[in-house]
Write a structure and sequence with these properties.
The protein has 177 residues and is an alpha+beta fold. Helix 1 packs antiparallel against helix 2 and helix 2 packs antiparallel against helix 3. The longest helix has 28 residues. The protein is rod-shaped.
Length: 177
């Protein structure tokens, strides 16, 4: 019995570590089809497979240790189940904390619409292009810009983006605060 528990805990623990490393480093995301619909088993938390592996690995290891100490098998099972649940909750909390800091940095020119920014390189009058700094999804971006009313906008002026084209944005000058 003790030998079987040792093998089960080592195999499940090894698989768990491998899966956690693949998800954290490589971004591997497992999906299963359950009941005809897609169920994402790894989005936003530990996931079904990793949760089960955590529970089985820790609970079997604790049961093995208690049985080696000569305790009753019922006590070993009860304490093993409790420790497996605690390990699952702890690991789930750690993974959620790590995933919480992840941020979607993909952006599109449409995300700049109605955002406020500042002129970095002056925008000349009559359809000339300048450059504005705009914060989009938490990151400062440099975008080519044209003036909405064909007036010159000097460097450092606050602007608001009112239109978006494929290659540039159209801005209007705002009052300085």
């Amino acid at each position: 019995m003790i030998e079987i528990l040792t093998y089960v805990s080592l195999v499940t623990g090894g698989l768990l570590i491998l899966m956690l490393l693949l998800s954290l480093i490589g971004g591997l995301d497992l999906e299963l089809d359950i009941g005809g619909g897609d169920v994402d088993v790894d989005a936003g938390g530990l996931g079904l497979i990793k949760g089960a592996l955590t529970f089985i690995s820790v609970s079997t290891w604790v049961m093995k240790i208690i049985l080696v100490g000569g305790k009753h098998p019922g006590i070993a099972v009860a304490i093993g189940v409790i420790c497996g649940l605690l390990a699952f909750l702890l690991l789930s909390s750690i993974v959620k904390l790590l995933l919480k800091s992840a941020e979607n940095v993909n952006w599109d020119m449409e995300d700049a619409l109605f955002q406020k920014g500042e002129v970095y390189l002056k925008i000349p009058a009559s359809k000339g292009e300048g450059i504005v700094h705009v914060k989009i999804k938490g990151t400062n971006r440099e975008l080519k810009a044209k003036s909405f009313d064909n007036k010159e906008i000097i460097t450092g002026s606050p602007v608001k983006i009112v239109e978006v084209d494929e290659n540039y944005v159209i801005v209007v000058q705002e009052e300085k605060e």
